[in-house]
Amino acid sequence: MESCFEAQVTLRCSVEEKAAACLSGSTHLHHLLPIFYLKYWSGVQQRRNSYEDGVYGTTCPIPPGRNFTYILQVKDQIGSFFYFPSLAFHKAAGGFGGIRILSRPLIPVPFADPAGDYTVLIGDWYKANHTTLKATLDRGKKLKFPDGILINGRGPNGVSFNVEQGKTYRLRISNVGLMNSLNFRIQGHKMLLVEVEGTHVMQTHFSSLDVHVGQSYSVLVTADQPAQDYYVVVSTRFSSQILTTTGILRYSNSAGPVSGPPPGGPTIQIDWSLNQARAIRTNLTASGPRPNPQGSYHYGLITPARTIRLSSSAGQVNGKQRYAVNSVSFVPADTPLKLADYFNIGGVFRVNSISDRPTGGGIYLDTAVLGADYRSFIEIVFENGEDIVQSWHLDGYSFFVVGMDGGQWTSASRNQYNLRDAVFRCTTQVYPKSWTAIYVALDNVGMWHLRTEFWARQYLGQQLYLRVYTQSTSLRDEFPIPKNALLCGRAKGQHTRPL
Ligand SMILES: [Cu+2]
Hints:
Elements: E1 5-8, E2 27-28, E3 36-40, E4 71-73, E5 79-85, E6 97-101, E7 116-125, H1 130-138, E8 148-151, E9 160-163, E10 168-175, E11 182-186, E12 191-196, E13 199-206, E14 208-211, E15 216-222, E16 229-236, E17 244-251, H2 270-279, E18 306-317, E19 320-325, E20 328-330, H3 337-342, E21 364-366, E22 369-373, E23 377-384, E24 390-394, E25 399-406, E26 424-425, E27 427-430, E28 434-441, E29 446-452, H4 455-459, E30 463-469
Parallel strand pairs: 7-10, 9-17, 18-23, 20-21, 22-30
Antiparallel strand pairs: 1-3, 1-4, 2-5, 5-6, 7-8, 10-15, 11-14, 11-16, 12-13, 12-15, 16-17, 18-19, 23-28, 24-27, 24-29, 25-26, 25-28, 29-30
Bound molecules: copper (II) ion (CU).
């Protein structure tokens, strides 16, 4: 599982009201943008490079008015991702965009070249400024329900996707919102799911698709209906109040505008969503980033060396709303954790400051870092005892989503795991009062962020870092600190490395 490209990405961010906000933050860019690429490698060892991840624990904030160049290398993912500003509550201001990782010319993808390729960023949206929302959270209040849903930054019917009759198009749909699972559908058209966060999947038709916060999907849509305009519909899932918005699928020879009400979708049905999730499986005969079939890595034959159980919860600490994992509500230290590791700065964090199983105790604040062995193969069980849908993301890796079900996870739950063709992705949902289990091969040294994508919860502590560590200083195991790494906190005054 190795990498292919190095790329340089230029993002210019502004701080216009509710427009974008990257200037004073880091931008989370762990997946690569092959837009302006500098150099192409074949068969080069994967660079282990959490320094470039662009989250609090790895990277210092980019000061206002300054530039910072991320040098990124794609992981082994051909597919669809997105980037966003990761600090404070900047994500609520936008500043995100789609990422397309293209296959190398000689590596076939399991479908014909589409006639067009559209990025479709969907998400819930607040009219309030990100600073206002942050202030609410800082006062210890919960975030209210959003005001609406946007498609590519636009309100109702503000965006149209143009198609020619008879042709097939790829839509790369990402949920860039802050809290709501969303259902995506197109009036009168089926969607053929082909790719999930860098994995080609069994090609299955869906009439609508649940996209949980932080998730990305590629579907193929064929313009095979009478030529007119059709609604593209996005609505919230599992919410007592249902928000809906629409865009337009427009045939080039359209005989007329959209007609009739936009098609309805599932609202609170959990089983529907769970069944859909279970139907999303890896295409074992498709090529991955290299010419070998994706199913050639037999994860199901490996016994995990360790089980980590992570239980999420909500509660108050000192009269303020907090969210936790295994009772620990994350608070940042004064120095990015990865830099503290690199410069051997003691006292910034403690390894295993969070338990690897639920403790049942009350919520407390700490800089949660969980230690894990490089090259071990582990099982992580996300346990959700609450009434909300959770969405978990792990940086630095894709993982096999081997199982999810209602109720309490027990070791007997393993009997129902999919050990053959589970989807390999980086963001997974956990249904209300349910669990989701993943397998991860820890082949990537670094300080990796593990967080809920429910952004207010993330901001108020529902996150931790997985420290995949090795004593080795070999370049084979980890890339050295970037020459241009910003140094802040107690790393200020240190030196990165000579030119
Ligand atoms: Cu990530």
